[in-house]
Structure formats: C-alpha cells, structure tokens
UniProtKB/TrEMBL annotation:
Protein name in the entry: DUF3558 domain-containing protein
Swiss-Prot/TrEMBL keywords: Membrane, Transmembrane, Transmembrane helix
Annotated organism of origin: Amycolatopsis roodepoortensis
Source species, domain of life: Bacteria
Annotated transmembrane regions: 31-54
Length: 228
C-alpha cells in the first residue's frame, strides 16, 4: 500500500512499540452545573430563613419579644382623665376647660393633655387666678422594651429634681416646686406603663397647692390601678 506522503515522512513503528495517546480531558460543564445548583439552593435557603425570622420577630401582628405582662392595656388620657366636678374644688370661682393639645397616638405611645382654669372669670369673680393641667402618657411595648420600662425611663428623664410624694397605688411619684412664691407645683406619678403629670397653680394666698396636686395625681392613678 502506498503512503500518502513522500517516503520517510512517517516513521515506521518498531515491533512491540505502541502509540501513546493522551486521554481526552473531561469536560467540567457538569461540575459547574452542580455547583451553581448548590449555590442557588443555599441562597434560597438563606432568603427563606431571613423572611421567616422577619415574619416571626418583626411582623406587626407578632407579640413583642419582651415581657409586657405588666403593661396596662388602656387608660384615660387628656380631658378624659377628670371631669369638671373633680377639678372645680381646686380652682376658685367658675372654671372653664379646654384641651391643651390634641391627643396623639403611635405604636409606642398614647398621649394627651387637658387644661382647666378660671382665666376668663377670676377678675369678675374677685378671686385669684388658678389652673390645672394634666398631661397623660400610656406607653406601649416595642421590640426592645416593655411599656413599663419606657414609662420608668420617661419619669427619670423628665423629673430630675423631684422629691418623693405619697400617691396611693402609684409605683413612684415625684413632686417639683415651680417658681419662688410657692403658688405652683407639679406632681408626676407612674402606675406601670401609665404616667400622669399634674401642674397645679393657685395664686390665692395660702392655697395648699402641694396637697392639691398630690390629690389630683392620686385621683388620676386611681382610675387605672386595680380597685382593692
């Protein structure tokens, strides 16, 4: 048989000699597909786990991850704290009342304020000016603290120079004298997650403003504390 090229172009193999053929390289396509599939599964697993954690821990309907068992569910705020007859005895002459500011509500706090005074009538009635202002706070549990914790922090933050005063059923109560003439005091009292801040001013000479503010704070706390 004739060779396709000139003589000597291809070496003639010797007896017993074999050609060595390098084995073909294995394709890596299959391995790459497997790795990509595993990576996709891991990503989906992490995403699902994060979503489940969010639903359980951060969902709006999920219970807060703090102990809120001592939080009061509801308490009167603003002008609902007192009716006119409860305040009238502390203000000479005829009294008027109006909301000092609109009530506000958020996920963590319900707040309101109301004022009672004789500003428009005290001259005609020939009495001294007086007013009562009550500001109310009802704290709600968040993911980081209970309503009780938030109310406790509020009292420490707002009342820095107060002295302890006896307000029945209150967990703590502090009194602060305002001004130099002894006509005005403020009592801040807390029951669990509810805080009532009572400002009482009466310019009548000798008016028992400390006793009046303490009595008003006691009446407010009595509306949320359990009856004995």
């Amino acid at each position: 048989m004739s060779q396709p090229g000139p003589p000597g172009a291809y070496p003639v193999p010797q007896p017993g000699w074999q050609y060595y053929r390098q084995p073909p390289r294995k394709k890596k396509t299959g391995l790459l597909i497997v790795l990509l599939a595993l990576g996709t599964v891991m990503v989906l697993g992490l995403a699902f786990g994060g979503y489940w954690f969010f639903v359980r821990e951060g969902g709006s309907d999920a219970p807060p991850p703090v102990d809120a068992s001592q939080d009061v569910a509801k308490a009167p705020i603003g002008c609902a704290v007192f009716d006119k007859s409860e305040v009238a005895r502390y203000i000479p002459g005829r009294t008027d009342f109006e909301a000092g500011s609109a009530n506000s509500t958020s996920d963590s706090l319900e707040q309101g304020q109301c004022a009672w005074n004789n500003t428009d009538t005290f001259i005609k009635d020939k009495v001294r000016a007086a007013h009562v202002i009550v500001t109310s706070y009802v704290y709600r549990a968040t993911r980081t603290k209970s309503g009780v914790d938030a109310a406790t922090e509020h009292l420490k933050r707002r009342v820095r120079n107060g002295v302890a005063v006896n307000v029945k059923d209150a967990d703590e109560a502090l009194l602060v004298e305002q001004g130099k003439r002894g006509h005005s005091v403020a009592v801040t009292a807390r029951y669990r997650n509810v805080v009532y801040h009572v400002d009482y001013t009466n310019q009548t000479d000798g008016a028992p403003v400390k006793d009046g503010a303490t009595a008003l704070a006691t009446a407010a706390i009595g509306k949320v504390a359990p009856k004995h």
